[in-house]
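Input record, target 12 of the design panel.
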């Protein structure tokens, strides 16, 4: 039990800590604007030097939470600041009479991810006062005017001038994923104040977590558990729609550390999942474009989904008839084939591999046939391999087959079919094709990669003189003969 004196002492202690945090935060930020001005003055054609970028990261360590800036800087994470006990001081600085402190505290405060700070930051969206210079990420910068030797410039970043409202907009984008320079915050907040029910809240939490680099398993587990504690509808929304692909918020998580592991085990009813699958009763806070439609369909088609039952076959077929995205179509076709089962399912997949209009879907169906039953499908796969002799350099079924045959689990059946295809004279022109435009060499690249995988060593080193010899008119014939001899040895189980 805490007595009156102990309570007083505790209050004094907490007040002291808060005051200390305030002094620390304000003292830390006050000298930053002047130093940032000095760093900008050393730029060459507005491009920062690497050493100045590193110094800026020490002056403004919160910047590494902003994904684009971190990617452009390409450097290790700086000191972890601010921390949660700095929040009161940073909130106080949002109304400082110094514009530079308002701007810097806004960007720093947003990295703590507190919902309550969203309206506070929004009040600065009309603040026209000048802010300190900042580094803007330029994703498509491929060339720049170099300075003197040894300048070590960073072409992916460029110094810019802005206003406090720009800093507030960047801070809100980190917290919400929304650009409030182009939309009304007041209207948006009316619909989104209950943030934990919204997809944007969890998406941005994942992004901030990933800004530190590859997340630790305990961080992922904590996020999983937090989502599981939400109401059933909210959990279902997050598990079905949060992305784990390479170009989305959770893309930096290794597949072995994916956010949601194992089959779907949601607390909403099977009828509710079926309703969502049919496009009914969709969550109104989600913009239902092809990206989210694809995530919903592919997750509900994954192994172990309660939708994958024979009685739902017609539902899947109807959904396929009005689905255009190739990833979703591929998932649906594979699931329909699985529900049909046996010879009927195999015949269905073969028909789609021939007649489906979208090339990428045909590729995925062929891959599915390889994974499902290579022994029974090898003759069909070989026929499809040589059915199209397009030299355009674009992705095609040949490339998909060559690549899939080198993927685990490896087997003698895969090795035998791969070697047969490479040894067939009809593939010769694809193996010796010079690389004049992007894509010209992909048949050869995939063949070499898969053969090396099965051999457990390099039958031919990629991008080597040996491979280059395949494409030169004066050496091509001999180089191909030597290469195919190695492939024949691999097929026969002999390796030199």
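The sequence produced for target 12 reads:
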């Amino acid at each position: 039990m805490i007595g009156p004196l102990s309570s007083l002492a505790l209050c004094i202690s907490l007040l002291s800590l808060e005051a200390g945090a305030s002094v620390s935060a304000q003292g830390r930020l006050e000298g930053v604007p002047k130093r940032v001005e000095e760093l900008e003055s050393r730029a060459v054609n507005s491009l920062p030097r690497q050493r100045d970028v590193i110094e800026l990261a020490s002056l403004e360590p919160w910047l590494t939470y902003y994904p684009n800036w971190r990617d452009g800087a390409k450097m290790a994470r700086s000191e972890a600041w601010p921390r949660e006990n700095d929040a009161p001081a940073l909130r106080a600085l949002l109304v400082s009479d110094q514009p530079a402190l308002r701007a810097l505290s806004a960007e720093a405060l947003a990295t703590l991810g507190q919902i309550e700070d969203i309206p506070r930051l929004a009040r600065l969206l009309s603040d026209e006062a000048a802010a300190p210079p900042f580094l803007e990420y330029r994703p498509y910068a491929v060339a720049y005017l170099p300075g003197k030797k040894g300048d070590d410039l960073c072409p992916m970043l460029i110094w810019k001038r802005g206003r406090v409202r720009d800093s507030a907009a960047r801070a809100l984008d980190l917290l919400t994923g929304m650009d409030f320079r182009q939309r009304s915050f007041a209207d948006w907040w009316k619909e989104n104040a209950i943030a934990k029910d919204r997809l944007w809240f969890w998406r941005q939490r994942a992004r901030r977590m990933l800004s530190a680099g590859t997340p630790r398993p305990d961080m992922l587990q904590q996020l999983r558990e937090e989502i599981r504690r939400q109401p059933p509808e909210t959990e279902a929304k997050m598990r079905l729609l949060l992305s784990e692909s390479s170009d989305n918020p959770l893309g930096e998580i290794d597949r072995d550390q994916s956010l949601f592991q194992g089959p779907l085990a949601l607390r909403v009813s099977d009828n509710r999942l079926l309703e969502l699958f049919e496009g009914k009763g969709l969550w109104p806070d989600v913009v239902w474009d092809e990206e989210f439609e694809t995530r919903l369909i592919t997750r509900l088609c994954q192994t172990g989904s309660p939708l994958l039952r024979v009685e739902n076959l017609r539902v899947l077929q109807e959904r396929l008839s009005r689905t255009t995205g190739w990833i979703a179509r591929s998932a649906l076709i594979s699931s329909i084939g699985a529900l049909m089962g046996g010879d009927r399912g195999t015949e269905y997949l073969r028909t789609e591999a021939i007649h489906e209009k979208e090339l990428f879907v045909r590729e995925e169906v062929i891959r599915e046939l390889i994974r499902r039953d290579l022994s029974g499908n090898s003759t069909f796969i070989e026929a499809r391999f040589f059915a199209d002799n397009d030299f355009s350099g674009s992705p095609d079924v040949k490339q998909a087959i060559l690549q899939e045959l080198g993927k685990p689990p490896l087997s003698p059946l895969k090795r035998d079919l791969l070697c047969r295809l490479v040894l067939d004279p009809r593939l010769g022109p694809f193996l010796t094709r010079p690389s004049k435009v992007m894509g010209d060499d992909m048949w050869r690249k995939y063949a070499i990669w898969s053969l090396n995988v099965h051999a457990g060593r390099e039958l031919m080193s990629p991008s080597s003189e040996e491979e280059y010899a395949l494409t030169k008119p004066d050496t091509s014939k001999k180089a191909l003969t030597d290469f195919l001899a190695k492939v024949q040895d691999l097929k026969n189980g002999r390796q030199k």
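Residues 351-496 form one domain.
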